[in-house]
C-alpha cells in the first residue's frame, strides 16, 4: 500500500467564523493553518479564497495573496487551487486559478444538487476547463460527487484533454449528492481505471468514518473545515486537530504518512512544476 496522502480543505466557500471560529479566512490565517497541518503530517492543501469581507471569491489577487503566504510559511507542500462554482459561475473566473499554474487544481466533472443550489458543470464548461488543464499541464483532482462523473472524466481522457494516471477525490455525504456510505466508497474506488489514485472527502459526520475506510482500502484522505466543522465527539474541529486524528488512526493501523515529496511521486506530479506558480504571483 502506498503511504497515506493527507489533504486539507482548509476554508471552502461556505463555512464562516460564526459557524466555527477556527475557520481560516485571511491569507495569514490560511498559511498559518497550512504550516500547522504540515507539521502534523498533511502534504496537500485544497485552497479557496475569501475577499476582505470574508465572502468567497474567485478573484486572482485573493488567490495570489493566499499562495504567497503559503509559499512563505510552508514552501514544500502541494498547493491545489479550487475551481469550485460557489464563489461565482463565470467560466473565466473559475478557470483562472488553473492559469496561475499551481501544482494541482480541482475539477468537478459533472453537475449535482448541493444545499440550496444546483452545482452546475455543463458538458461545455467541463470541456473548456479540460482544455485549460491540457494547455497548462496542471494536474486535475477530479471531484466525483456521483458515479457518472467518473465516466465524464474518462471521456475527457479519451479525447486527450487530461492524461493518466488520473487522481480522483470522492466527495460523499453532501446533501443532494451521493450518500457517504462505505459501500458507495468501495463501489467508486473499484470503478476507476487501474493505476489511478483516489482520496475521499466525507462531508459532515461522514468525514472521519470514511477517512478510516480509505486508510484501510489503500486510498487517501481529505479532511478539513470546508467539509466538516466538528470532531466526532461534537466539539468544534480545527484543521490541525482533524489532521492529527487521521495521522493517529493511520499509525494505529500501520499505514505510514506521505511527505509532500512522497505525495508528489504517488500522484505522478511533475517535480519541475513545483514552483511554477511563484513566477505568476
Ligand atoms: Zn473546495
Nutshell version of this structure?
The chain is an alpha/beta fold and 281 residues long. It has one domain: Aldolase class I (TIM Barrel, Alpha-Beta Barrel). It has 9 helices and 12 strands.
What does this structure look like?
- The chain has 281 residues and is α/β, with parallel strands linked by helices.
- The chain has one domain (6-280): Alpha-Beta Barrel (TIM Barrel), CATH 3.20.20.70.
- Helix content is 37%, strand content 17%.
- It has nine helices and twelve strands.
- It has helices spanning 27-40, 60-73, 91-99, 123-136, 148-158, 182-189, 207-217, 239-253, 260-266; strands at residues 6-9, 44-47, 49-50, 56-57, 78-81, 104-108, 112-114, 117-119, 139-144, 167-172, 197-202, 220-223.
- Strands 1-2-5-6-9-10-11-12 form an eight-stranded parallel beta barrel, surrounded by eight helices. It has a two-stranded antiparallel sheet with strand order 3-4. It has a two-stranded antiparallel ribbon with strand order 7-8.
- Helix 1 crosses helix 2, helix 1 (27-40) runs parallel beside helix 8 and helix 3 packs parallel to helix 4 (123-136).
- The chain is globular and about 45 Å long.
- It starts with 5 loop residues before the first strand and ends in a 15-residue tail after the last helix.
- Zinc ion binds at residues 9, 12, 46, 48, 82, 84, 226.
Amino acid at each position: 500500500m502506498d503511504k497515506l496522502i493527507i489533504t486539507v480543505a482548509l476554508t471552502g466557500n461556505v463555512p464562516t467564523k460564526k459557524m466555527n471560529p477556527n475557520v481560516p479566512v485571511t491569507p495569514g490565517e490560511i498559511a498559518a493553518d497550512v504550516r500547522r497541518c504540515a507539521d502534523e503530517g498533511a502534504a496537500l492543501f485544497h485552497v479557496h479564497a475569501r475577499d476582505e469581507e470574508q465572502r468567497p471569491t474567485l478573484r486572482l489577487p485573493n488567490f495570489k495573496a493566499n499562495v504567497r503566504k503559503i509559499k512563505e510559511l510552508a514552501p514544500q507542500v502541494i498547493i491545489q487551487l479550487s475551481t469550485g462554482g460557489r464563489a461565482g459561475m463565470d467560466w473565466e473566473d473559475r478557470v483562472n486559478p488553473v492559469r496561475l499554474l499551481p501544482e494541482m487544481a480541482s475539477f468537478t466533472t459533472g453537475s449535482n444538487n448541493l444545499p440550496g443550489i444546483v452545482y452546475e458543470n455543463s458538458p461545455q464548461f467541463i470541456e473548456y476547463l479540460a482544455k485549460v488543464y491540457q494547455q497548462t499541464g496542471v494536474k486535475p483532482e477530479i471531484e466525483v460527487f456521483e458515479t457518472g462523473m467518473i465516466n465524464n472524466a474518462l471521456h475527457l481522457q479519451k479525447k486527450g484533454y487530461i492524461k493518466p494516471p488520473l487522481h480522483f477525490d470522492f466527495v460523499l455525504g453532501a446533501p443532494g449528492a451521493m450518500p457517504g456510505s462505505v459501500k458507495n466508497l468501495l463501489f467508486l474506488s473499484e470503478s476507476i481505471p487501474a493505476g489511478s489514485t483516489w482520496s475521499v472527502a466525507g462531508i459532515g459526520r461522514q468525514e472521519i468514518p470514511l477517512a478510516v475506510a480509505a486508510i484501510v482500502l489503500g486510498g487517501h484522505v481529505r479532511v478539513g473545515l470546508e467539509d466538516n466543522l466538528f470532531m466526532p465527539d461534537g466539539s468544534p474541529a480545527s484543521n490541525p486537530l482533524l489532521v492529527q486524528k487521521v495521522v493517529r488512526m493511520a499509525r494505529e493501523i500501520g499505514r505510514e504518512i506521505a511527505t509532500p515529496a512522497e505525495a508528489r511521486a504517488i500522484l505522478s506530479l511533475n517535480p519541475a512544476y513545483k514552483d511554477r506558480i511563484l513566477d505568476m504571483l
